[in-house]
Specification:
It is built from 16 helices and 24 strands. With 477 residues, it is an alpha/beta fold. The chain binds flavin-adenine dinucleotide.
Length: 477
Amino acid sequence: MSTQTVENGRHRVVVIGSGFGGLFGTKHLKRADVDVTLISKTSTHLFQPLLYQVATGILSVGEIAPATRLVLRKQKNAQVLLGEVTDIDLTNNTVTSRLLDQDTVTPFDSLIVATGAQQSYFGNDRFATYAPGMKTIDDALELRGRILGAFEQAELATTQEERDRLLTFVIVGAGPTGVELAGQIAELSDRTLEGTFHNIDPRDARVVLIEGAGAVLGPMGPKLGGKAERRLEKMGVEIQLNAMVIDVDAFGVTVKDSDGTIRRIESACKVWSAGVQASPLGKLIADQSDGTEVDRAGRVVVEPDLTVKGHPNVFVVGDLMSVPNVPGQAQGAIQGATYAAKQIKAGLKGQAPQERKPFKYFNKGSMATISRFSAVCQVGKLEFGGFIAWLAWLALHLYYLVGYRSRIVTVIQWFVTFLGRSRGQMAATEQWVFARLALEAISNGDDEDAEQLAAALGASTNSRVAVDKAHTDAKAG
Ligand SMILES: Cc1cc2nc3c(=O)[nH]c(=O)nc-3n(C[C@H](O)[C@H](O)[C@H](O)COP(=O)(O)OP(=O)(O)OC[C@H]3O[C@@H](n4cnc5c(N)ncnc54)[C@H](O)[C@@H]3O)c2cc1C
């Protein structure tokens, strides 16, 4: 166990998380007379809105996930600690983080918690084995391996039934992530991979987008949802609304329609983009406050100044906070974190917590891209789609990408992908596809499960041997 100490007596701010909330909160404190410690379990600032482009071979990880340490290099009052926060003590004002087997305790005077949300399977966590979500770099790389791997396996399939199963891609959830992913898998098979196989025609791929509600992009309203739906259908995406996925296994999904019909879709590659669950640190904090609660998704129902009851020095921002009319989007996190940093600075100048003006969210709108040259966009009452919306999407994402290098490389990759047919990031390895499952099996001690899992998922002999070896090594160690 190590303890972080600061001897200069300056106000200590601990920021947890290096996503939009964590990074923008830290940056906003650049000129403040404070010492900031940013603790995150990931070493990068991940631009989640472009994860689907990593999954579909357009961008590399580096473009959307610069190292936080490098981003903050010039911020002299900030230090970065890698580690998963395992405990927050609101009585003693400390944060405990863990890196491998080393615990570190970091004291704070002010705390900004921005640990976001993770995928939710609505109580069916076993679905995750076969239908990974889209929240992390690992998710995106695993998915890239699964998507490209399905085409490769289809090339070798010996029956039409197996070929069809391998060329069926099921995406659960028709929010922005589901829509963007469906559009990109359709373009990948129709444009990029077309003519690159001998035994299969990638254009035969079936992309199925399943949504429990009655509309695509529900929160964006019927006009934009309808536009997105029509565009996707034109691209050959099958949209199934009012359909609930009630089971997922290695070979496909089971779906229940609104009239009670239960049916199967055989599919090798499934993606889950249907729900989110807030980081468990939210409940940990709420339980120590003077009565702050968490909502059904585990988000902290914060006070008007984004703090928890009885602790005006503890701010919860971003996807982890529950504030009416503030969506779980990048802008909510950026504005919440900037607000928290401002309150900390005002406090240093003598402002009492009760003098704080409540947090006000400025809705800058939302957008989703469907395919190259087509997006939908909502700014205030203005709703539009098509090429102009796509240009707006392009400009906005470039603006928020961190770092000049990332922006330049991204523009080049987009140029190659959208104007040509190629994609620059089509590499995938067996490890990306199977490492998560192997690691989970090892940590659960499920030797046989890992072996069966690898077999059921169609792993090659090599990767089965690798799983075996990992078990043997783990046992020996
Ligand atoms: C696929 C996808 C597409 C999206 N598209 C859009 C879009 O187009 N437009 C838009 O506005 N929003 C979009 N969003 C939502 C947006 O990305 C989030 O609202 C935003 O990232 C929330 O920021 P945050 O800082 O609260 O959390 P995050 O960005 O999720 O960051 C959380 C941070 O906390 C760290 N962390 C978590 N737990 C711990 C722990 N215990 N200890 C230490 N560190 C921890 C993580 O490593 C991470 O660095 C998308 C999200 C996803 C997943």
